[in-house]
Design brief:
Elements (H helix, E strand, L loop, with lengths): L4 H6 L9 H4 L9 E4 L2 E4 L3 H8 L5 E6 L1 H9 L1 H9 L2 E4 L2 H9 L10 H14 L3 E6 L4 H12 L4 E6 L8 H10 L4 E5 L4 H8 L8 E4 L3 H5 L8 H5 L3 H8 L1 H26 L2 H35 L5 E7 L5 E7 L6 H8 L20 H8 L8 H5 L4 E3 L6 H5 L14 E3 L12 H14 L2 H17 L5
Parallel strand pairs: 3-4, 3-8, 5-6, 5-7, 7-8, 11-12
Antiparallel strand pairs: 1-2, 9-10
Length: 471
């Protein structure tokens, strides 16, 4: 069914992103990006990315997933299109794993199927219009109907299919430009959509263009999306394989293995030997620790449950490398109301500086005092290490409110992964003041080597058994 004429008519007076209101907006900081597969991948959450892409400047957006990386390796034109895109957004668990292999961590999964409707909601709020180009005849119209139902006020400037409608580039570009659309969404699949956008970038009037793969098919109900639980588990690829096994077998069964091998090779090529050795040491030590300490973990869990009410584990938001928040895991050594009572106890800190520590903290349980004496409460952090959020050796991760109070120079300690042990931990732990701790952590960040890590690990055993500064 052709797109509703009434809706098309709504687009006759489109709002252009180069109007005075948008042009007058204050300059924003560029989005953070990380290097991966010779591309600069956007490292931002959805709101930050949308705010940047709707800033009134010209942006050509591409999405990178495991399949895209595989196609890039064999298609030079597509690789060129990806390399010249203004913003490459990370799509899927494969890219997240590839980033972690290189010691980096992405802020969010910005897959096109979820990100694009979210971007269009903000576009509707700002009065911007969109043109849908691609997919089989009639699919773009159905996708437009669905978007208008889901996003009140969204202005559709026009639609065009990706078959006969894409056969003549001149006619397609003319239709897009005459529509007055602010945003162009192209759904012709990889690599075609991104190559088309790159080759015609200078001839297209819309300020923002995106290549979105199968989005129109999802919106039109032609392809069923995975349930939310499957998507949240980052297993949507498995759902698509189950729905279309013949078409998707090569992409996912062979492609995923190929991609992981490519990601591993890229990680080795891009990392220095010390970084690879450090991560290998982390994985080897924590893997061995899980096997060796499992009986101890069970005994500690039982002791905690018998001693006081509440969960065995304590989870707390800490700040890690590059200022990223993560959930740090510990054995619970305090009563369950400890966080609520913290503010009232700050004046009783026995430690100099911004970090709170009290020798006689009334929140600590009987079992907790024993665990803290020998740092047993810290052992569950081996799981944080396996996940890549921490390292065996590094600065201790701080609370967000502590990081907010850092002097400027102290932010240098966030340049490396936080650790289970480190220089100041083996030098007196809580007996070390904040300023001296900063000096030690900054010195470690500037001169870390695998040999230094091994030395600090060995010194940790002496520090644990001496109990100095542990309370």
């Amino acid at each position: 069914m052709p797109f509703d004429a009434a809706i098309t008519a709504t687009a006759t007076a489109p709002f252009h992103a180069d109007t005075q209101d948008v042009a007058a907006a204050p300059a924003r900081k560029p989005m953070k990006r990380i290097p991966l597969f010779d591309l600069a991948i956007v490292d931002a959450d959805a709101d930050q990315a949308i705010d940047h892409l709707l800033d009134g400047q010209r942006h050509r957006v591409a999405f990178l997933n495991a399949h895209c990386a595989n196609v890039m390796a064999r298609d030079a034109a597509y690789a060129q299109a990806m390399a010249t895109a203004d913003a490459v957004l990370p799509d899927g668990i494969g890219i997240d794993l590839a980033a972690k292999m290189t010691g980096q961590q992405l802020s969010a999964n910005l897959n096109g199927t979820d990100f694009t409707p979210r971007l269009l909601r903000e576009a509707a709020r700002r009065g911007l219009s969109v043109f849908l180009f691609g997919a089989a005849p009639g699919v773009a119209d159905q996708a437009a109907d669905k978007l208008c139902l889901d996003i009140p006020g969204l202005r559709i400037a026009g639609t065009r299919d990706g078959f006969d409608g894409a056969a003549d580039d001149e006619a397609a570009i003319d239709a897009i430009n005459r529509s007055g659309a602010d945003i162009l969404i192209v759904a012709m699949g990889v690599p075609r959509q991104d190559i088309w956008l790159e080759q015609n970038a200078d001839r297209l009037a819309p300020k923002l263009s995106l290549g979105v793969g199968a989005l129109f098919d999802f919106l039109a109900g032609r392809v069923r999306r995975a349930p939310a639980a499957v998507r949240n588990a980052r297993m949507e690829w498995a759902w698509r394989l189950a729905m279309e096994p013949r078409r998707m077998a090569g992409r996912y069964l062979v492609g995923n293995v190929t991609f992981m091998a490519r990601a591993a090779a890229h990680a080795v090529a891009s990392a220095n030997r010390d970084a690879v050795a450090k991560r290998a040491l982390d994985v080897a030590l924590t893997g061995a620790a899980i096997l060796a300490l499992s009986p101890l973990f069970a005994l500690v869990a039982l002791a905690i449950k018998l001693d006081s009410r509440g969960p065995v584990f304590f989870r707390q938001t800490r700040v890690g490398r590059d200022g990223r928040a993560f959930e740090m895991l510990k054995f619970r050594s305090m009563h369950v109301d400890a966080e609520a009572r913290r503010a009232a106890l700050l004046a009783q800190s026995d430690r100099e500086g911004i970090f709170f520590k009290s020798r006689h903290d009334p929140r600590v349980t009987r079992v907790g005092r024993i665990m803290r004496r020998y740092s047993i409460d810290e052992l569950p952090q081996i799981l944080n290490i396996l996940k890549g959020e921490m390292s065996v050796v590094g600065p201790r991760p701080s609370l967000p409110q502590e990081v907010a109070a850092y002097p400027t120079r102290a932010h240098g300690r966030l340049a490396v992964r936080p650790g289970l042990t480190g220089l100041w931990q083996v030098s007196g732990r809580a007996d070390i003041g904040a300023e001296k701790m900063f000096d030690m952590d900054l010195a470690y960040a500037a001169s870390r080597t695998i040999l230094l890590d091994i030395a600090l690990i060995l010194m940790t055993f002496r520090a644990v058994f001496s109990g100095r500064g542990a309370y």
